[in-house]
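Hello Y.,

Per our agreement to keep a running log of every chain we model this quarter, I'm adding this entry. I've kept the format consistent with earlier entries: sequence first, then predicted structure.
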Amino acid sequence: VSEETRKTLNRALTVGADRTFDQDPRFGLIAMAEVASRALSPGINDPGTAIAVVGALVRVLTHWCNERSDAQ
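Predicted structure for the entry above:
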């Protein structure tokens, strides 16, 4: 790999010990889905939290879809 390509890749990627929601939106969606799933487990049985997470996911995905349609 050329030096220029290496520098371009280094500027494009962030390497660290932890992922953040800003760097990896998919990670945020997975975390929210896990919260909803645990809220519905028999031991916790908190449907209100699960419903709140579903509502948040709908808002996030709606915003993402609207941005995509505006870009086209």
